[in-house]
Amino acid sequence: MSLNRILVTGANGFLGRAILSLLQASGISVWATDLGEVGCVSDIAYRKADITRPEEIKPVLENATTVIHVAGLAHIFSLDANSVEKFRQINEIGTANVASAAVAAGVGHFIVISSVSVYGPYTQGVYDENTLCNPVGPYALSKYNAELRAIEIARESGMALTILRLATLYGEGDPGNVGRLMRTLDRGRFLWIGDGNNRKSLLYKGDAARVCMAVAERPASGINIYNVSAPACTMREIVDGIADALGKHPFPVRVPAPLALLLSRHLSRIPNRRLAGLHQTVKKWLAEDVYDTRRFEETYGFQTRTSLKDGLKREVDWYRKNKKSFKF
């Protein structure tokens, strides 16, 4: 284990911090990089670097044997004209820069944090790693293209590559969709659409960190792609779990799914930027989002440890303690 020297990019982010803390507690040799002037996890060597600038990232990789590439752009909910290029530069070009620098530094194993969004905004049935990708939107497209760039570099160089397609992450300090839902419920602005029986895939950030450590600790060869998620749960279970932890329950009236789809389709046609994506949002809310994770679980003997109820409670407890000082 001491021979494995791990660099974590995006170390100050939501998942990066969880990975660093777990590796540090396990006594693994690890250091970190991100855009901030200082690192967020104490007692870990840190160096500022911009992954879109190859000249900055190359020196950081010296002596690394493994790279966990977490850095990326996500959670931009109000897209503007610059968003597409930002996603491309950071997620696609940035990944290619880090992968190329890893090859030059002699890194043996490159681990890319990707997303199940590469399959599309929702699933029809249960998707495994052989399902054709159909990324929709600038984020999903940039993550898919990042995978392709990393695969190309790995094939040409022989560097081992592991791509982890993670389900929607949640947990303390969550900046994503579960966090948005929590804040909507807390403010009393939630309205039920549909019956809540459609299934969704989530992954607690602590379990995601355990996934990364398991992959980093095991020597890899070739190119491997894995779906990673906790067991699927229903939308009702997610909402009820957050509501119970908050002690606030949504208004019991429900909008039937067919009516919500009809109304959102018409409203999305109104020339109003805020309403433009409403129909797609409603469709995604009502859709299934389920993935086959057996390949990863059987390869690594891995099972998630944090139940949905416990993970949501931890997120809500953190939110209550920090919502006055934390910028969401």
Beginning-to-end CA distance, first to last residue = 37 Å
The oligomeric state of the chains shown is: single chain
CATH H-level superfamily of one domain: NAD(P)-binding Rossmann-like Domain
Count the DSSP helices: 11
Mean pLDDT: 93
Features:
two-stranded parallel ribbon, 328 residues, alpha/beta, globular, 11 helices, 17% strand, Rossmann fold
Sum this structure up briefly.
By secondary structure, this protein is α/β, with parallel strands linked by helices.
Describe the structure.
This protein has 328 residues and is an alpha/beta fold. The protein has a domain at 5-173 and 201-230 and 291-302: Rossmann fold, CATH 3.40.50.720. Helices cover 41% and strands 17% of the residues. It has 11 helices and 13 strands. Strand 1, helix 1 and strand 2 (29-34) form a beta-alpha-beta unit. The longest helix has 23 residues, at 83-105. The radius of gyration is 20 Å and the shape is globular. The model has no long low-confidence stretch (mean pLDDT 93).
